[in-house]
Amino acid sequence: MFKEKNLSPKQLAALTALLLSSIIGISVFVLFADLKLLIAYFLACFVVIYFIVFQILEYFIYRKIKLIYKLISSTKATKREEAYQKYILPQKGMDDVREDVEEWATQQNLQIQQLQSNEAFRKEFLQNLSHTLHNLFRIDDLMEIVQGGKIEFDRCIATPDMMPKLAKLGRVLGPKGLMPSPKSGTVSTSLTETLTEFKKGKFEYKADKTGVVHVSFGKADFSKNQLIENLTSLYQSIEQNRPSGVKGKYFKSLFICTSMGPSIQLDLAAFE
Predict the structure, then answer these.
(1) Domain housing 75
(2) Which of 100, 177, 234, 272 is the least crowded, having the fewest Cβ atoms under 10 Å away?
(3) pTM of the model
(4) 113-115-119-122 Cα dihedral, nearest 10 degrees
(5) Would you call 25 exposed, middle or buried from its count of C-beta atoms within 10 A (0-12, 13-18, 19+)?
(6) Domain for residue 114, yes or no?
(7) Of 60, 92, 124, which one is at a domain's C-terminal end?
(8) 123: in domain
(9) Which ranges in 148-255 belong to alpha helices (H)?
(10) How many domains does the chain divide into?
């Protein structure tokens, strides 16, 4: 007749009245052994108990639940919500009410998480904006230093949006091979990845009009083994990346020198 779950106030009141009326009716029958008296007591007790229990549930429990629903809505109830609270809510069991409240709580948590995410995005955006503005002022100062002829870096990497500002440095950086360009990989939208690649040893080399390749493979503070390893790797890289149409011996000669010192010719057989 009744389900264990989802009992409405009316169902719960009827079930309570049925149990108590049955107990009272049986007690009367045992005492007086009168079937008519049993039925009379049973019906009377059922009606009275049902009314009392239903009123208790309606006014002391479900009235509080309705207030909770109103608080959950937190806005003026629409006609649809008023009809729900008046006609549908009294028919709902406590499990249904609990599920509705849990669903509301889940929605509120999602909204809170979304607001927290938006707040985190706003803070990150403001930090990036502040960092960008700070860098712009630093770049202007650095450009003035470079224009004055003071260059204290081995490579210049820039984003595409900075190229118009760097164009005025072309006469200074161009002759030294430091002007950023997409072909050399020094113009990138991902500075972190590009910097990582160059720190690992990525560099570009090309031959001039006479077929000579000028490239640096070390510094004065490098150890002997480091210089040998770099020079060997450079030789192998040029040999492996020779044009497909070139056949036979690719290297004709190989010289090394310091920045302002005389050149020394090396034996190519040492690299074979």
Answers:
(1) 9-92
(2) 272
(3) 0.34
(4) 120
(5) buried
(6) no
(7) 92
(8) no
(9) 163-166, 170-173, 191-199, 224-240
(10) 2
